[in-house]
Every structure is written in C-alpha cells, then in structure tokens.
C-alpha cells in the first residue's frame, strides 16, 4: 500500500484542479519559498483529519479555500482526494480493508449562501465520514496523528518538551490511554459509590427518626380510621332512619288531611240544617213582632225605626271617633319624624351654604395665587427665551403643553361638575322615591283593610269588638307581608349565594388544575413532576412566603406577574424548558436561571428612603426564602420598598419603586397604579386563591338556608293566625250591615284613588331615577376620558418641563420648578373650589326643595289633624244629643211594651234561641273553614315533605346508601342523629391527624429495608472497583515499561547511526511510579562528554536527537508511508545527508515523501516533484518523475509491504490479547431507589462528572486511545472473518 497520487482543487494556493503523482520509494518535493510546496502536506492532513484548521496553518476552514490570488476570483469550495494503491499481498490480505486495488478518499469543504462551511467525505465516490477514514487507515497503521507525518516545528517541539510532556508522548505510543480511561472510570464510580454510601447513611438516620414519629401517627390514624368507619355506618343508619321516618310522616299527614276534609263536610251539612232552623225562627219572630205592633196600635210614629236609626248613628259616630283618634296618633308620630328630617335638612342647607362661602373664598385666593405664579413663570420663561434659541423653543413648547394641560383640567372639572350634579339629583329622586314607595304601601294596606272589612260584614256580631279585630287582622297582614318580603329577600340572597358558590367552586377547580398558575408555568412544573425536566426549582410563589401575613397583599402586588416566574438552576435548563413549551405548544413562561442572575444593588434613592418614617423595608427582606434563590427574588421584586400608605408613597415617589399595604404602586418614573384590588390567581406558598372564599360561601349558604326555614315557619304561623282572626270576624253579626257596607265602599273608592295616585307618583319617580342613572353613566365615562387626556397632558407637560430644566441654567431651572409647583398647587386648589361652587347651586336647590317638601307635608298633616279635631268635637256633641234622645225613645217603647209582656218575652226567648242557633252555626262554619284550612296546610306540607323525601333519596343515591326495608329494625332519627353527633365529636377530638401515616409508615419501613440492601450492594461494588483499579494500574505500568524498553533500544540504534557513533538513551524520572514522573532523553554526540545534557546541545544536535526519537517510535509502530515537511531545515549539510540517507534506506520498506530544499536530500531521492508559482499567487507543479526507478523498487517494496502487513497483523493480535487481559470496569450502578428525592441531584452530579472526564489529556492522546479501542473491535471482526465495512456517525464538524 502506498499513496499513489494527490488530487487538489482550489485548495489554499492551488487554483482549479491539480494532480500530484507519487510512487514507492523516496519522493522529494521542492520549490522556492512561498510556492506552496508545504500545502501538499496540508492537503494530506486535510483528508486524513487534522485536529484543527491551525494544524493546516489556517485560522479556520474558510482559509483553506482558494482566495483568488492576485487577479483571480475566489472559489466557493476546496476539494482534496488521496488515491492509495491497495494491492493484494502474498498472504491474500490487503493493507486497507477494502476489496479494491485503488482506494480514493475525498474531503470537500464548501461555503453555503450564509458563508458557513460544510464538509463532505467520500470513500470511492460514496458518502462517508472522517471517523470511517480513521478506522480504515488505522488498520493499515497510517494514522493522521501518529509520527508517520512530521510537520514543520514538530522536531523543534519534541526537543523542547518537558519530561512530563515527553512521557505523555510515550503514553500515546504505548496506548495506555485506554487504561487511563478505565482507571478514571473506576475512580469516578468509586467516588459515586462512596457518595451513595454517605448519602444512604445520612438519609437512613433521618428515616429512622421519621419512622418513630410515623409509628405514633399511625396508631392515631388507625384509631381515627376505625372511628371514621363507625361514623360512616352511623351516617348510613341515620339516612335510612330519616327515609323511613319521612315516609311514615307523609302517610300520617295524608290520613290527617282525609280526616279534616271529612269533618269539614259533616260540619257544613250541620250548618245548612241550622240555616233552615234560623229561617223558621225568623218567621216566628216576625209574626210575634207583628202581633206586638198590632197590639200596640202599630209603630207609633215609627218608634222602633227611630230607635234603630239612633243606635246605628251612634255606632257609626263612635267608629269615626276611634278612627280619627288612631289617625291622630299616627299623625303625631309622623310629625315627629318630619320634624327630625326638617331639622336635618336645615342643618345640611346651612352646612352647604358655609361650604359655598369657604369655596368662594378659596377660589378667590387660588385665582390670585395662580395669577401671581403665572406672572413669575412668564417672567422666568422670558428670561429663558432671552438666554438662547433652544431655550426659547423649549419654553414655547412648555407653554403649549401648559395650555393643553389647562384645557384638559377644565374638561375634567366640567365633567366632575356634571357627574356630581346628576349624582345629587339622583340622590334626591331616590329619597323621594323611597317616600313614595312607603306611601304606596300605606295606601295598599288601607285599601286591603277596607276590602277585608267589606268581606267580613256579612258575619259580623255587634257584641264583639269589630274594630279591634280589624286592627289585629291588619297587623297580621302587615306581619305576613313583611315575612313574605323577608322570605323573598332571603330566597334571593340564598340563590345569589348558591350561584356565587358554584362559580367559586368552578373557579377553584379551574385554578387547582394548574395551582393558579399561567399555562406555560403550570406545564413546566408538571413536566418537572413527571421527571421530563431537570433543574427546575419552582415558581416564585412556591418558594417564597411573607414573614408577616399582613404584608401578603402588598408583596404579591409587588411581584405581580412574577409570581409565576420559574426559578431554574442554569440557562441550559431554561433553554430546554422553553424548547419543550414550544414543541408542545404549551404557552410561554418566564425563567430565572440562577447561574446568570446578578444581584443589582439598590439605587441611591431607595437606599436613602429605606430608613424614613412609614417605610417597612425592602420587599425581598420581608419574605422568607432559600438564600440560594436570593438573586431571583431580588430580580422579581426590583428593589421595591414597602410603605404603610399612599401618603408615604406620594411623599417618597420618584426614582424608586414603592408599594403600599393597600396594594397601590408608584413606579420610579412617576406612574401610579391603584384602584380596586384584583384577586391574584396564585398566592405565596403555591396556595390557590379562592379556597377561603369557597369556605365562606358554604357557611353563608348554610346560614341563609336556616334563615329561610325560620322565615317559612314564621310565615306559616302568621297565616294560621290570620285564619283564626278571620274565623272570629266571620262569627260576628251586625244589624246595621247595609249602612256600614255603603260607608266602607265609599271609603274603599277613596282608598283606590289614593293608591292609584301613589303608584303613579312612584312610577314617575322611578322613571326619572332610571333616566338620571343612565345619564350618570355617560357623565362618568366622559369624566374618565377627560382624566385620561389629563394624564397624557400632564406627562407631555412634565417632559417639556424636564427638557427645559435640563437645558436651562441651574438657578433659572430651580426658579422655574418652584414657580411651576406653586402654579400647579394654586391651580389644583382653584379647580377644587370651582367644582364645589359649580355643583353647589344645584345641590342647594335640591336641599331647599327637599326642605320645602318636608315642611309642606308637615303643614298638610297639621291641617288634617285640625279638621279631625273639629269633626271629633261635632261627633261628641251629636253623640250626647242622640244618646239622650235614644234613652227617651227606649223609655217610651218600654212603657208601651209592658202591656204585652208575654208576647215580648216569647219574642225575646225566640231571639235568644235564634242567637244560640246562629252562634252554633257560626261556630260549625268556622270549624269547617278551619278544617279545610288545616287540610290545605297539610296538603302544602305534604308537597314539601314529598320534595324533601325526593331530595333525601337523591342524596342517598349519590352517597350509594341503600333504602332500608319498611320492616327494618332501625333506631329513631333522634337516636341515630345523636350517635352520629357523638362519633363526629369523637372524630373532632383527633384534631389534625395524618391519615396517610399508615401508608407512610409502611413506605418508610420498606425504604429502610431497601437502604440496607443498597448499602450491602454498594460496599461490594466499592471493593470490586478497588481491585479492578489495582489491576489496571499494574497492567498500565507493565505495558508502558515494555514500550519504553523497545523504543529505547530503537533510539539507541538510530541515534548511534545518525550521530556517527554517538550514544543516546531514554529513562524514566520515577521508575517505580512512572506516571508520577517524566521521561528524560539523554544524548551524547560523538566526541562530547558523557555528562552533557539535552539542554546543553546545539540546535542541530537537538534536532538529530528528536529525529532519532521519531525514527525509534516509527520502528516501534511502522506505517506504510511517511511524510516529512522540511525536517532538515535546521541541520547542516552532513546531518542533512544523514537524515536523507536514513529516509532513503527506510524507503525500501515504506513510502517516504519529504518536502526539502537540501541538495543532498534531492540527490538521494528516487522521485522529484517541483512546486512553483508564476507571480500570481497560484501554485503549479513541475514534474521530474523517474518511472524506471519506481518500477525497479516496486517488487521489493511489495515484499517489504507484505512483511509489514504480517508485522501489523501480529501487533493487532497482541492488542487483542492485551485487551482480553485488561480488567473491564463494570457499568455504573444506578442511583439507589431508596434515596428517593435525592435522585435528581445525584443524576445531575453524575452528568457533570462525566462531562469532564478527559479534559486533562492532550487531543492526540485522546484520538490514539480511540484507535486502540477500534483495533480491539477489528480483532473481533477478523476472528469472525467478517470484512463488512463499519461506518459510524459523524463527528464534531458539520457533514453533508
């Protein structure tokens, strides 16, 4: 095998395509300096795989592409092909493991459109990679990093190496780096195992303590579990008992309803019989009355009629007197209330007038101060305008900004006035509407009362107090109405609370799905919990907690959206998390990598303000958190100060961020943020906002449910009482029924008109109030818009003022600032006073209107009382006269009736009998009504009970509680409830116990047992690793010493030959422990003292010693071809001849290519290649190739190649035996599962350790180690007679 030709295209100084042929033997490449002859060696290195572009004397891959020279266009690609002759040897093998007589290895680098470099590897025209090149050439012992290629400077570098560096070269030659890998692997595993052992010991102690604690908690939990099971069983019995009890109650009430209906039908039948009896008695009484009248000669002058009329008249007048007295009592109470309202209205009016006077005075003073400050500011601006054109422009800009600001302030003032005006009108209308609604209710009650009286007249009884019963009924109706209103209100509140509870539970469920966090942050935390992401520490809300609970709202407001910021260990973890979010479309999140976060020092203003009154301190100082995340917390809070209130914030604002305990924020630039508090989704400690609210709403729903039941029971009692009163009223009888009915109808008509009038007034007031409310919404919107424009104008004015101040002299600038401050204060005071004055007139008119209305109402009541007083006087006088006349008429009638006493006695008996029958009938009728009322109440109760039973069955079904049989032996509801209550109290006594303690105890015990097993396994592994390390150290030392022995012998022979009888030797500084010392090279040229050292030799002598070492290494590890680049440049002619002769002699066994300028080297070369350039910066080839000499050497070279192949095969076999004898370090043990939560940290440490495994070794030693391993693989392939090509994945440089 030998290098047959070198084909280059646009490589460095070679323009276009060029082919440089080679042949067996000794080839010399020569040419003038700068002609590009050394670029031939760079081309060979380029294909074989140089460690970096610098080895090829280039800064980067782009420098390898032809740059155009002096007059040509730069190329976009460079390509080099090495053509190897690969003949079949006498033993049937080929040096390169490819079944082809010629092997072409090509590498191309080209520029993309973005000027990035892309490399392509081709093997015999098919795509390949650099690692495949290395393996193929390595099997022929033609590596790119061995000493078969010696570049410019390598000889000098080898002679100037330290002893340690020289020993590492020997390490590479001996191939002991694979031992180093295994030893490091074993040491790393041993350290890991020892760390596991230490961790297990630490965790084991904690687990034992935890086990003792859990043992106690487990006992409590077991008792609590037993009690809970008893409680659940008792609850089942209670529900079943309630079900049977409800069914029994429903059956009982149904039977009672049937009984009441039957009794009512029976009583109604008896009432009908009594009515027949009453008709017969009325006829008999009428007959007797007629007889008496006839016996008395008829009704003389209508005496009975007169007596009846007088009785009716007296009764009516007495009723009128009672009603008038009752009205007077109500009027007195109403007058007292009106007097209080009038007094309050007068006080409000006087206070308003005082405020108007004060506002007018303040307005005058503010206008005066405003005018003065404007004059001062104008004077200062004039001075500024005179001071320069720039200041004049800025001053005019400030004036325009001030004018715009004044206009905006006027707009805000006008909007405020309009809004307050509408609000005041709405308040007054609302008060009038409230009064009107009360009047409507009074009129409705009066109308209902009259209607009730009309309904009850038919069964009235003059012996009973009808007025008192009517008043009692009205009170019962009023109480019923209030209860209905209360029931409606409670029902509405209950429904509202239930809706809020449902919404709160829904929101809580939604928030609990992601712990209240944003979707992106929640997805990251979920991925961490699933183990998909590492290095995720947590969110700010999880990792922080306020030291004082009263500061929680302020601190949460200060952090704001940063509550969901995710703290990670480093930026790599953040990048991985962002990639995961992006790939799965899970949203966005903010990450705080601790390795990149920097703690910012507090600003000067913040540092000076922290100790001022009202300042509680820096926000991050008021939080509890792990000190390791301090930089992330400081970043999230941005040096925010927490203050007590907005007053302190306003006093300190500017240049520092402030947050108040109420949640207001002032930014360093002057912006202020505040208003109603917005509920945060997440709180500190990862808590979800809303859980407490749900608990409050549950309590509120329970409380309102109890209230609803109470009101319902009271309403039922009120209706029962009304029925009783109606029954008593129905039992009353009255002879003057028609007269009273007429009177009541007239009064009912008046009440209807009054009710309609009151309703109309209330409707009109309601309409006006709705219009005012709509108008107020528009005015408020106008006010908000005006305020927004005002904020923008203030910002523009401040910017203009800042620019003017920054460009003005300091003295004028300060005066202008003071003048502007005074003007703003005066303007604010004037605006405030103007608002009061503008809204004052309207408010005063409303107050006066209200006072007039109250006074008029009081006058009307007093007039009504005066009219009633006059009527009372007239009624009392008329009663006295009519009473006297009635007594006279009755005396006259008595004298006439004495003559017919028997008839009158019979009539009286019949009247008494009639009254008794009537009373019995009325009683039975009332009883019938009561029975039907009770039946109706029972029917209503049955519907409720049936619904309750349905709800109970649904509840039991939801709880999977079976329905008990009707004949089941169950305790009564009271006993069952008592048992449940006792068990609940028993459960409550356990307090906050750990119900998971049973499982936790078992898990903890299991973990301890697992730790013991892991500990034994780790101890065994540690002992095994120590034994393997000892064996590896022993074999590594043995192999190094064996290699040193062979190379040393080679070095002695070569140096003796090259130095014409000199002596040279290699020896270790520390033979007992060779890897702790270096490798010394001793050389004694002929004729010099044996005490001479390498440092004392001349440059040429050092080069000869270094070349001797290179040849010695080559003898130890022969290659089919060698490339030397001007290795003789520092040698004199005799030494150059010695080196050329050595190369000439060695070329009989291998191909030698030398770049040289030495004549003696050129004379000894078999083939010559000349490289030159034509002055245009492009390299060209001059060929002088002795083909006859090449043919003559061919046969001999083939023979030597066969011997070299056999030697190489024996070395591969030797490597296989060594690899089999080398102890192999087992794979790392996985982290013990018993360590639990420490696993993540352990894995991170393992990865960190693995990432730094080979940093201490040189690049050449690394790649040589890889070659040893590849040879081991090759041995197994050869033994299996498998000649298949193995091509691995691409290495560091991007491939196409």
Can you walk through the features of this model?
By secondary structure, the protein is an alpha/beta fold. Helices cover 66% and strands 9% of the residues. A hairpin with a 4-residue loop joins β16 and β17. The chain is elongated and about 190 Å long.
List the defining traits of the structure above.
single chain; 1296 residues; alpha/beta; 6-stranded antiparallel sheet; 6-stranded mixed sheet; 9% strand; elongated; disordered C terminus
Strand order across the largest sheet = 2-1-4-5-6-7
How large a portion of the residues is in β-strands, by DSSP E?
Answer: 5-15%
Note the gap between the termini: 29 Å
Main pleated-sheet profile: 6 strands, antiparallel
Number of strands: 24
Q: Using only CA atoms, what is the Rg? A: 57 Å
Helix content: 55-70%
Low-pLDDT runs? 459-465, 511-516, 732-739, 1185-1198, 1237-1268, 1278-1296
Average pLDDT number: 75
Task: Provide a concise account of the structure shown.
Helices cover 66% and strands 9% of the residues. With 1296 residues, it is of the alpha/beta class. Strands 2-1-4-5-6-7 form a six-stranded antiparallel β-sheet. It has a six-stranded mixed β-sheet with strand order 8-21-22-3-23-24. Strands 13-15-16-17-18 form a five-stranded mixed β-sheet, sandwiched between helices.
């Amino acid at each position: 095998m030998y290098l047959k030709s070198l084909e280059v295209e646009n490589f460095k100084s070679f323009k276009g395509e060029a082919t440089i042929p080679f042949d067996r033997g000794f080839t010399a490449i020569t040419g003038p300096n700068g002609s590009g002859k050394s670029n031939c060696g760079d081309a060979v290195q380029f294909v074989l795989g140089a460690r970096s572009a610098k080895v090829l004397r280039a800064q980067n891959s782009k420098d390898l592409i032809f740059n155009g020279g002096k007059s040509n266009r730069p190329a976009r690609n460079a390509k080099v092909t090495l053509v190897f002759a690969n003949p079949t040897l006498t033993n049937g093998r080929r040096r390169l493991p490819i079944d082809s007589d010629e092997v072409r290895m090509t590498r191309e680098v080209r520029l993309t459109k973005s000027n990035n470099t892309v490399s392509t590897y081709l093997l015999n025209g098919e795509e390949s990679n650099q690692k495949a090149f290395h393996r193929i050439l390595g099997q022929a012992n033609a590596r790119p990093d061995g000493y078969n290629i010696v570049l410019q400077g390598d000889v000098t570098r080898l002679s100037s190496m330290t002893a340690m560096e020289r020993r590492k070269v020997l390490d590479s030659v001996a191939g002991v780096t694979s031992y180093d890998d295994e030893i490091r692997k074993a040491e790393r595993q041993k350290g890991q195992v020892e760390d596991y052992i230490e961790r297990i010991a630490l965790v084991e102690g904690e687990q034992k303590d935890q086990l003792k604690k859990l043992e106690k908690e487990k006992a409590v939990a077991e008792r609590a579990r037993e009690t809970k099971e008893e409680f659940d069983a008792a609850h089942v019995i209670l529900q079943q008992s309630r079900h049977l009890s409800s069914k029994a109650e429903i059956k009982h009430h149904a039977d009672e309803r049937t009984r009441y209906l039957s009794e009512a039908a029976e009583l109604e039948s008896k009432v009908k019989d009594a009515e027949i009896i009453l008709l017969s008695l009325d006829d008999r009484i009428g007959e007797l009355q007629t007889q008496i009248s006839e016996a008395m000669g008829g009704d003389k002058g209508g005496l009975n009629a007169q007596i009846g009329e007088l009785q009716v008249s007296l009764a009516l007048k007495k009723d009128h007197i009672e009603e008038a007295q009752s009205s007077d009592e109500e009027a007195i109470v109403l007058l007292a209330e009106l007097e209080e309202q009038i007094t309050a209205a007068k006080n409000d009016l006087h206070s308003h007038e005082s405020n108007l006077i004060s506002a007018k005075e303040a307005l005058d003073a503010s206008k005066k101060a405003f005018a003065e400050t404007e004059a001062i500011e104008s004077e200062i601006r004039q001075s500024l305008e005179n001071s320069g054109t720039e200041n004049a422009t800025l001053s005019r800009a400030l004036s325009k900004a001030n004018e715009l600001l004044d206009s905006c302030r006027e707009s805000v003032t006008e909007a405020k006035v309009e809004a307050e005006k509408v609000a005041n009108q709405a308040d007054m209308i609302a008060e009038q509407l409230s009064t009107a609604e009360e009047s409507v209710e009074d009129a409705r009650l009066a109308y209902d009362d009259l209607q009730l009286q009309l309904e009850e007249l038919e069964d009235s009884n003059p012996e009973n107090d009808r007025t008192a019963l009517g008043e009692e009924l009205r009170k019962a109706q009023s109480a019923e109405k209030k209860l209905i209103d209360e029931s409606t209100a409670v029902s509405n509140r209950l429904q509202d609370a239930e809706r809020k509870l449902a919404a709160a539970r829904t929101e809580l469920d939604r928030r609990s799905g992601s712990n209240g966090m944003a979707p992106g942050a929640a997805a990251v935390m979920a991925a961490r919990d699933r183990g998909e992401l590492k290095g995720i520490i947590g969110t700010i809300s999880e990792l922080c907690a306020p030291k004082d609970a009263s500061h929680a709202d302020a601190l949460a407001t200060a952090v704001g959206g940063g509550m969901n910021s995710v703290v990670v260990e480093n930026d790599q973890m953040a990048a991985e998390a962002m990639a995961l979010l992006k790939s799965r479309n899970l949203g966005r999140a903010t990450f705080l990598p601790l390795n990149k976060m920097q703690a910012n020092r507090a600003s000067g203003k913040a540092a000076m303000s922290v100790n001022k009154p009202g300042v509680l301190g820096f926000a991050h100082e008021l939080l509890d958190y792990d000190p390791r995340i301090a930089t992330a917390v400081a970043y999230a809070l941005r040096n925010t100060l927490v203050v007590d209130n907005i007053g302190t914030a306003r006093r300190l604002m500017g240049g520092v961020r402030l947050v108040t305990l109420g949640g207001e924020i002032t930014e360093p630039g002057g912006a202020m943020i505040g208003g109603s508090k917005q509920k945060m989704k997440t709180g500190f400690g990862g808590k979800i906002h809303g859980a407490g609210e749900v608990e409050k709403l549950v309590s509120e729903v329970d409380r309102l449910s109890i209230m609803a039941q109470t009101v319902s029971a009271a309403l039922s009692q009120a209706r029962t009482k009304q029925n009783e009163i109606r029954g008593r009223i129905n039992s009353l009888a009255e002879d003057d029924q028609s007269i009273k009915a007429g009177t009541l109808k007239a009064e009912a008509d008046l009440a209807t008109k009054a009710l309609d009038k009151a309703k109309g007034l209330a409707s009109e007031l309601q309409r006006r109030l709705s219009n005012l409310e709509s108008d107020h919404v528009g005015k408020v919107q106008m006010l908000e818009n005006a305020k927004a424009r005002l904020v923008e104008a203030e910002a523009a004015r401040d910017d203009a003022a800042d620019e003017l101040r920054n460009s003005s002299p300091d003295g004028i600038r300060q005066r202008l600032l003071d003048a502007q401050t005074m003007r703003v204060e005066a303007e604010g005071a004037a605006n405030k006073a103007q608002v009061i004055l503008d809204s004052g007139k309207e408010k005063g008119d409303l107050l006066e209107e209200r006072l007039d209305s109250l006074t008029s109402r009081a006058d009307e009541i007093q007039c009504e009382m005066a009219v009633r007083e006059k009527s009372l006087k007239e009624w009392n006088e008329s009663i006295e006269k009519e009473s006297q006349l009635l007594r006279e008429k009755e005396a006259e009638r008595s004298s006439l009736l004495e003559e017919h006493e028997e008839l009158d006695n019979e009539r009286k008996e019949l009247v008494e009998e009639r009254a008794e029958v009537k009373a019995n009938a009325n009683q039975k009728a009332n009883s019938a009504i009561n029975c039907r009322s009770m039946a109706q109440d029972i029917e209503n109760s049955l519907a409720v009970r049936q619904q309750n039973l349905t709800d109970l069955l649904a509840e039991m079904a939801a709880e999977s509680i079976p329905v008990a049989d009707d004949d089941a032996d169950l305790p009564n509801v009271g006993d069952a409830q008592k048992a449940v209550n006792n068990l609940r109290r028993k459960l409550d006594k356990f307090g906050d116990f750990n119900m998971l303690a049973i499982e936790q105890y078992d898990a903890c015990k299991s973990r301890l047992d697992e730790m013991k097993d892991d500990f034994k396994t780790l101890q065994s592994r540690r002992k095994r690793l120590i034994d393997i390390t000892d064996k590896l150290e022993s074999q590594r030392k043995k192999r190094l010493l064996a290699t040193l022995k062979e190379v040393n012998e080679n070095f002695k022979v070569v140096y003796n030959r090259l130095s014409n009888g000199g002596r040279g030797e290699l020896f270790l500084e520390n033979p007992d422990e060779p890897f702790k010392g270096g490798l010394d090279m001793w050389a004694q040229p002929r004729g010099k003292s044996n005490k001479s050292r390498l440092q004392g030799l001349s440059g040429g002598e050092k080069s000869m010693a270094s070349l001797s070492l290179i040849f010695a290494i080559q003898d130890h590890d022969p290659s089919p071809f060698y490339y030397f680049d001007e290795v003789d440049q520092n040698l004199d002619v005799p030494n150059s001849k010695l080196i050329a002769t050595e190369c000439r002699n060695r070329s009989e066994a291998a191909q030698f290519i030398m770049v040289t300028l030495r004549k003696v080297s050129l004379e000894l070369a078999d083939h010559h290649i000349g490289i030159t350039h034509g002055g245009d910066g492009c390299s060209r080839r001059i060929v002088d190739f002795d083909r006859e000499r090449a043919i003559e050497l061919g046969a001999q070279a083939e023979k030597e190649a066969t011997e070299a192949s056999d030697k190489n095969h024996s070395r591969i076999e030797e490597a296989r035996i060594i690899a089999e004898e080398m102890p192999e370090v087992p794979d790392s043990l996985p982290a013990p599962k018993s360590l639990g939560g420490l696993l993540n940290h352990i894995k991170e440490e393992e990865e960190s350790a693995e990432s730094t495994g080979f940093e201490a070794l040189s690049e050449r030693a690394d790649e040589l180690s890889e070659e040893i391993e590849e040879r081991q693989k090759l041995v197994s392939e050869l033994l299996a007679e498998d000649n298949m090509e193995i091509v691995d994945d691409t290495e560091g440089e991007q491939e196409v």
